[in-house]
Amino acid sequence: MHIQCPRLPKLTQLQSRFAASLGASLLLIAIYFILSSPRLAYAQELGSSSDAAQDTRPWLAERGLDDKSTSSRPAWDGGLPIDPWDEELGAYVEDFGLPPTEEVLINDQAEHEVPCTRCGGKLEDSSPEQEEEGKSELRKRQGTQALQDLPGNNSPGRSNITGGEIQRWIFSREDVNGPAGDVGSGLPGGFVDFEDQSTTYEERERHRKLREEEETRVRSKSKRQNQNQKTVYVAINTCSQPTWSGNGEQPDSPAQLTLFVSSSSAQVGASNAPSDQIQVPLVEGFARINVTARGDVYIAIRSPTLGNGWRGSWTYSVAASIDDYYYAANDGLPPLYLVDTDTESALLVTDNLTQADADSDEFNQWMDIKPLPFTVFAQGNNTRNNIAGMRYSYCGLTESADLQASRATSDDASAPIQMSMVTRGLGYKPKQQFVIRGLNGSSTYQAILAMYGNSSTIGDGVVGGGGKVWTATNFTTKSDGNCALLYNLTFCSSTAYSVPSNPFTFPNTTSLSSFYDTYAQDLYTNFSLSLQLIPCNTSSTARYSLSKTCDDCSRAYKEWLCAVTIPRCEDFSSTLPYLQSRNVAQAFIANDSFLPEAVLQQNHNPMWNAPSLSWASQQVLGGTFASNQSRNSRIDGEVKPGPYKELLPCEDLCFDLVRSCPSALGFACPAPGRGLEAGYGKRSEGVGVRCSFAGAVYQVAGAGRVRVGWKGVVAGVALAMAWVMV
Known about the structure:
Mean pLDDT: 79
């Protein structure tokens, strides 16, 4: 069935002319109202990107970053742009002698530019006093100060901020599109990131290649999508913070600042924030954010309102870079290991810095590196509040930590912290060593590893020049006063721990080191004479072993000898069950007192695996051979340390000696139940250093670390846990 649509009536000539006239009239009326609207007084066309880069006008565009932006709002005195449609703010401006917002006209042509009354110029209808009062009140109203310029790429800006305040910075498009920063000479080749230490070389190489392929793919895609954009890295450190002045103990660390970054608007940090704003609260005085931009980048720092009992302000340092973060922090396990302590010092080392072979150029470059790349901050538990809230801030630690290592005095034996390169320990690879002095006995400390700038260069204009911080390593000093820390011995070069001592018989560690080291070397000399009688350089059929050589025997003997002639000392007051008591019948050197007779008469069985004898259960602590003397009789005769406990050498050192040397030399280890337990300890697969061996260290890990959303922030608070590095 065919359906025919109805036709519209045909207009007469008069009707057509009337319709055309009516349409034209309505169009003219619409144009009249549009042109008379005050809103169009603020519309303007932005110039090209090159024109924008050369724009020196004191006002800032809200969207000056985007070349496609078609509108901007004038900023008063370089501060937050004023919204011309904010009626309350417009009335507020009028109350202080400023012209209403609709009277501010901006002409993009410089020769016809109308003076902007909110751009820091003179206010036309107000006195200087009214002008300043108006600015102050409006600034307070906006909760902000004028935009401050960051000094440049990799150059931080520093400022003081009070509670409940917002401060804004601008990283200019000239710096965003400017030249790259100085990276310095960098570290020697073969550097192994601390985070990669737990993997094999092959795994690290495979992961490195995969990362490089992924980075290349991402860069290629990013280059196609954003030909004119760059990544801008923003990082901040808290340098100082409010102090507690309230009643009682400080309840917590001061509240943290908050970092805001936007690549589109100077309104960053405000209640009407731009949609691309990224907000990150600082954790332990550190935060970081990265954004992509082709022009100005806006940064805001907001401080919280101070609570009751707190007074003062914050000082912070913020930097932007097109290369990498100026400040850095890492919340992983600390790559700083505790070796040992005595009552006034502590010895720590870093993880291996390279896996290069000992005969390679890279290995030698690490051992000869100057200046040393890492530093350490040390803080006592009784002054921990001084850095609480800034433990991830290089700037804050530099200004507030109790002790800090100095490159200028790294070789000075009298410096509070002495630094050097060593190979002692795991893998015999290059490590940086720290000796912290001037500590108090029986006290807990934090040692925080940090990198000077980017390791080779530090300061303004340097990529990563602000420094890097890792989590803290906790340790406690000894208390009894008869254990002294020895290291860097001439013969027993791998020995580094506390040994039995007496400050009255050996007043300094130099003489004590000579006593132990010389004795071990003399014994080794006698051994070498005996080893010369063994046919070492002969045919394989005539050698004493097909798998071991005389070199293996020499190495095993030296390692065993240094461990047994230089015992590792622990406080007698320690209750660790695997320690062996020594010299229990002697007087304590601190006060010439003796252990109570009741303690000496306590039942004590040093070898639970010994054959059962009728009188075994009747042994007492003061009467057993192992507990009533030192391993080495010269220690009791010359050092006279008094009662102490020994961390026994590992039994595998003795087993390795027997396996590696000719049977003609007569080496043998005691059997279980026949002296092995009293003379040697067992390595532990779990937590703790259970026996002494060359290079044994404790790692204090970060149990309970604070993890935060990464948009650029790391954090952590370290608690104690230890395990052996084997």
